[in-house]
Structures are given as C-alpha cells and as structure tokens.
From TrEMBL:
Protein name: Methyltransferase domain-containing protein
Lineage of the organism: Bacteria, Bacillati, Bacillota, Bacilli, Bacillales
Source organism (scientific name): Paenibacillus albidus
GO molecular function, one term: methyltransferase activity
Keyword terms, alphabetized: Methyltransferase, S-adenosyl-L-methionine, Transferase
Record-annotated Methyltransferase domain positions: 46-121
Amino acid sequence: MKQNKYDESGFFTNYSQMPHSVGGLEAAGEWAEFRALLPGLQDKRVLDLGCGFGWHCRYAREQQARSVIGIDLSENMLERARAMTVDPNIEYQCLAIEDIDFDNGAFDVVISSLALHYIEDLVP
C-alpha cells in the first residue's frame, strides 16, 4: 500500500517543525554527503522522487538545471513546495513514485532523498 502519512494533519504539523523542514538543506544531516554524490546539474533535466517541500528541486535550479519535476504523493508537501517556489522551470506533480511513467531519456538526473524506503517493492 502506498504510504502517505504526510497528509495526516498532526503528522504534517510535527514534520513541518523539524529542523530540515524549517532550515532547508543546510539543516538536513545528510545534505553534505548527498550533495557530494550529485553530478553537475547545469543544463540538466532533473526528476526528484519524493520531493517534499521542494528543497532539492530549488537547489537543482540554483545549479542551473534546465528543468526540474518534483513528484510527491502528499498534497500537503506539494502545497508547501509550490508556496516556497517561484520558478517556472520547476513543476510539481502529485504522484506516487511507483506510478511514474515518464519516457526513457526524459531526464538526465534522477534524485531521491529519504523517500525510497516508503516503497514496498522496489522491483517492478
């Protein structure tokens, strides 16, 4: 079953108060290591699986990514991401990771931070 605790009011309220929710990537304990794994993003088409508040999407554009699509199953997460984003080259879609259906080659870089553990079966 696709998990979506983030649209439960109490859960989302508590999540929204966590340091990385308030302070962004620099407040996320894993950010330094995650950033070191990223390739150059300039002129790349980026997909962010489980984009949450859109921090990685906005980072990709700061690094001059051509376009970014962030997907998340939570309407609450996407509402916050949209409110924090002023960039026509970032698009957010409400979609489960398991349900993505983009053409092969649609993206140059696919990222996901702290989201794949929600998928029950990673092998299609």
